[in-house]
Design goal:
Trna Endonuclease, Chain: A, domain 1; seven-stranded mixed β-sheet; four-stranded antiparallel β-sheet
């Protein structure tokens, strides 16, 4: 059985009548633009693999897959505790704070002024090896002409569980102190298999069910089939504070960022182009 579960957003476990069209367009259905996962040896060719099967689980390997229908952002709206009717919701990507860039800021604003915000990080699994031969075998099974050398290629892939989990927890720890100092929320979005690994490999004994008063929140999602398509479903919410993230790793927090400085960065990035459509 082929191990590619989703290709360009198509459920590979079901008939794929639009497969050849997707291969021509190479469009990511979750971003609306061409898939950015390209082959180094063939920059014009997008790989398009969203999800793969590993140890009987469907594991998402592309963070853009998490953007499906903006569900992950809607599930963070309750953390905009200062949001009021009449405010507009913006989604601002890639904002730099101490400790690195934050993937997205969900912002409540009125008249160009930020009233509240939530920082959101996305993390999916990093792979080892290559998924390309498995992808090509899937295409051959679907009647698409592929190079024979790709079919003969027996290289496979694995999951880099430890590095993926440790890297994102270290990054969360570096950034969490800034959000705690500003009395704002910071959310990590992951899939269930990665969440389970983190809970087993690190000290999560102090990470409780989600409390609005905690700074750091973990939102974990299952991938379920609905009407033939795979959809994200929020399965757990947990939270802690910045010291709690440090306790997972035994690290210390780093420098914080002044609220006025961050508000200025966000307000210069607000525009009609990043209004969130719900």
């Amino acid at each position: 059985m082929n191990k590619i579960v989703e290709l360009f957003g198509l459920n590979c476990c079901r008939p794929m009548p639009t497969l050849k069209e997707c291969l021509r367009n190479q469009r990511c259905p979750f971003t609306g633009v061409k898939c950015v996962k390209i082959r180094k040896s063939q920059p014009s060719v997008a790989i398009g693999t969203c999800t793969i099967s590993y140890q009987d689980a469907s594991v998402i390997i592309c963070p853009f897959r998490l953007l499906d229908k903006n569900q992950i952002f809607m599930d963070c709206l309750h953390l905009l505790t200062a949001h009021e009717p009449g405010n507009r919701i913006h989604l601002v990507p890639e904002v730099k704070i101490p400790g690195g860039n934050v993937d997205y800021f969900l912002v409540s604003a009125r008249d160009g002024k930020v009233k509240d915000f939530v920082g959101i990080e996305l993390q999916t699994m990093d792979t080892t090896g290559t998924v390309w031969p498995e992808r090509q075998r899937l295409l051959a099974e679907e009647g698409v002409n592929v190079l024979q050398k790709d079919l003969r290629n027996m290289r496979s892939f694995g999951m880099n569980w430890k590095m993926t989990a440790k890297t994102i927890l270290v990054q969360m720890h570096h950034k969490a102190q800034t959000f705690e100092t500003l009395n704002k929320h910071f959310v990590l979005i992951v899939q269930d298999p990665l969440m389970r690994y983190m809970e087993q490999a690190f000290d999560f004994s102090h990470v409780s069910s989600a409390l609005i008063g905690n700074t750091v929140h973990f939102h974990s999602y299952a991938l379920k089939e609905v009407d033939g398509a795979l959809r994200l479903s929020l399965s757990s919410r947990k939270s802690t504070d910045s010291d709690g993230v440090g306790k997972c790793l035994g690290l210390k927090a780093e420098s914080a960022m002044e609220l006025s400085e961050l508000l200025n960065v966000l307000e210069t990035r607000l525009s009609d182009n990043n209004l969130l459509s719900l």
